[in-house]
Amino acid sequence: MTDTPLKTLLAASLLAGLSAAASAQEVNLYTHREPALIKPLLDKFTAETGVKVNVVFAASGLAERIQSEGEKSPADLLLSVDVSTLTHAASLGITQPIVTPALEKAVPAQFRAKDGQWVAVSARARVIYASKDRVKDNALTYEDLADPRFKGKLCTRPGTHAYNTGLAAAAIAHLGAEKAEAWARGMRANLAKKPAGGDRDVAKDIAAGACDIGVGNMYYVGLMQKDPNQKAWVEAIKVIMPTFKDGATHMNISGLVLTKNAKNKAEAIKLAEWLVGKGAQQQYAADNFEYPVVPGIAVEASIAGFGQPKADKIPLDDIAKNRKAASELMEKVGYDLGPQG
Amino acid sequence: MAASSTATLKQTGAANARPRFRAFPWVIAGLVLGIFVAAPAAGFLSLMAGGALSNVLAFSPIQLNAMREMSLLLAGIAVLAGSMGLISAWLVSIYDFPLRRLIEVALVLPLAFPTYLAAFVAVDLLDFFGPVQSLWRWLIGAKTLADYRFFEVRSLPGAIIVLSLVLFPYVYVPCRLVFSQGGRNVIDAARLLGARGAALFLKVGAPLAMPAILAGLVLAMLEAINDIGATEHLGVSSFSVVIRDLWLNRFDLPSAARLAGLLLGIVALLVVVEARLGRRKSASPRNVAHPRPIRLGGWQAVLACFLTGMPVLLGFVIPAGFLVWRAFLYAGQQAAWQEFALASLSSLTLATGVTAAVLVLSAALAIAMRIAPRLAVSNRIAAFGYAIPGTVLVLALFPVFRTLDDALSLVGSGAAISGTLGAIILALCVRFLGLGASQAGFALRRLPRSIDWVARIHGMNDLRLALRVHLPAMMPGLMLGGTLIFIDAVKELPATLLLRPLNFETLATRAYAQASAGAFEHAALDSLAILALSGIAALMLIRKR
């Protein structure tokens, strides 16, 4: 009685390990995005199309894995949460253009690579979290984060984290290298404590009174509201939709690349097109509190009230090119050393 | 007759002093070290190649700071974990006090905690919204951090304490072995000569345990060096974070690898120091009667109970209890019991497979070293994989897997090692070979060489000698090494995460995925299962021999 399920489990786990061979009607997805956030969507895709999605998740290094696996790589698609990871994958030579009439029709040009190497499936805005009690402003720019009036009042996650390096890359694009450096120095001078933890910890620190203002991705606000344990953190903050002074909100994306050696190309494209379809975009937005990349789809209600991000005229590809400079900038100003350092 | 047999023995002994050359130990050591050390090392070198060479020594303030924090972290762990392990081992071995037998066993349990889990639990328990500070605020009537001060767990001191609390058993276990077995006679003699209390501890106990402390601290520090999740979560700028920044933000893998190489140099230094200082082992005859442990009463008993009980409480009971509470709280949301069961089975199968594979390799290597003593240095070389950060090791293995896959293609096979369980097992063999080989080698060194000579005189060939004499002699070492490897393999994250096949989850990868999605509370059940598996194994470390 107890033997049979155990044996089945064992067989299944061995099979999962030993067979890399592809059968019909499946697609293999490597993802840097946490499986819990995409699983409901993938299950729905399978239910609707009959195409099974096999998944492996890792925080980093999947592009290198695909490169190492070469022609035998089972990966058809790589899903990542940061545009520069996607451009990096393309630069490793492991991708092929993911361009179809349906994708071009659904996704505006700002959310597709100029050379067709990646396509976004969702967008996220980097916004300002501020204490409801202690911060009076209701509109701020990214530049304001470096304003001396916030001295000793700023909390962020480490400057080496992709989300902050991405913001710094956008700052270089919008302000130029010199002003971006002054901005990063100003932000470091404003820090209340050494950068640590993640974006949720920024809200937590503001709620605890350790600081008054911080930077975080918008979707964490929705996720914290949904979690009974974290509701108290988010209730202490208000969300300010910032722009650079030139009027653009820093958006990053989660997106897909199609691998060069994709064995299930048809299914992979089917999944990509399905993900930018109306139903999937609605669900993705509703489950994960991100911005749809397809025009005309509503943002999740609880975050819609925080205002619409202002579209950036600088293409994401160009911001991604500043990534190395941004990382060097954060290092140069000693951001992660914290206020004293 | 007697004279002639002595003469024969002498002749044979003389012959053995210059033994005839045997090729097979070299072949075995060459194969094991070639596949599991040289190949990844070559991969590592290929990562380092390319890019500007100047990068590695032009340290930025951030990198210097990471080095400073890392050194302080390691020094702090050496002091705190070292003294916790030493003192608790001394107290439970020499004295008798209430709960001693229970505490003696329970002191190994913190080893079951992966460092990343310990860090997540510590922050959840101790930060502003955690139960401890909430209670404190309620007691003193405070509302926000502006009203009171509290220990900041996300700090260097916090990281030292959290890591020490789960790493000290690496020191406790070997120290206890010294106090209860290896060095017991010396301690007993000192006691008979009137040494007591602090003098007995400082003049006899601590010096006797020094090699054991060093050996344990090397393991503890290696784990701290390789850790990335815990130190990052606790806000310490570890070297691993800097390495990752170079790789993932600047896509400068060569510089990242060179920094990892520097780290490897530091580790090599640690290992050499340990080898120089730590090899004075005292042999002790077994099965002699020991005097009874000294019975403590009154405040002394309470103090001993407190000193040995606190590490157990803080390093295991409280964090594990917190996880149990969380698991109950979220049990309703644990929809996928089948996936949980499958992950548990995967963890168990993988850890068992890896342990078995490493032990076979370790035994083969130890026997080769025994038969060809010139190979002795192999032990140090085998430690290579344990000394590089896990993710870097995987990146170094990618070219190796690529070569293997290409070789498979050449012989017309469509199969690949990449993306299979084989890849994880291979990577973890590289990682844990040093751990197994050192334990096997150490156990075998206790066997006098004269036994080999006698066996040869009786006509045993090398194979029979290895199987009938060396293997049984190695068993205690293999058991100990195997247990440590099993515990580490259950907890292992970076290699498993990055190399696993599609749809393959272990307990550690599931817990990590939940935690990195910011929902650590949903990882409680998987975390507890990790604790159960590695905790049961840890208890084997302490069982009566």
Please describe what this structure looks like.
The complex is a heterodimer of chains A (341) and B (545). Chain A has 341 residues and is of the alpha/beta class. Chain A has helices spanning 3-18, 35-49, 62-69, 83-91, 101-106, 162-175, 177-190, 199-208, 218-226, 231-235, 265-275, 278-288, 301-304, 316-321, 323-332; strands spanning 26-31, 52-57, 77-80, 95-96, 119-131, 154-155, 213-217, 237-240, 251-259, 291-292. Chain A has two domains: 24-123 and 252-304, Periplasmic binding protein-like II (D-Maltodextrin-Binding Protein, domain 2); 124-250 and 311-337, 3-Layer(aba) Sandwich (D-Maltodextrin-Binding Protein, domain 2), CATH 3.40.190.10. In chain A, strands 1, 2, 3, 4, 5, 6, 7, 8, 9 and 10 form a ten-stranded mixed beta sheet that branches. The longest helix of chain A has 16 residues, at 3-18. Chain A is globular, with a radius of gyration of 21 Å. Chain B has 545 residues and is mainly α. Chain B has a single domain (20-48, 61-540), classed as MetI-like (MetI-like fold, Orthogonal Bundle). The two termini of chain B are 42 Å apart.
Summarize the structure.
Chain A has 341 residues and is an alpha/beta fold.
Percent of residues in helices of chain B comes to over 70%
Strand order of the largest sheet of chain B: 1-2
Radius of gyration of chain A: 21 Å
**Largest sheet composition of chain A:** 10 strands, mixed
Gap between N and C termini of chain A, in Å?
A: 63 Å
Strand content of chain B: under 5%
* Low-pLDDT runs of chain A: 12-23
Notable traits:
heterodimer; A: 341 residues; alpha/beta; D-Maltodextrin-Binding Protein, domain 2; ten-stranded mixed β-sheet; 15 helices; 43% helix; globular; B: 545 residues; mainly alpha; MetI-like fold; two-stranded parallel sheet; disordered N terminus
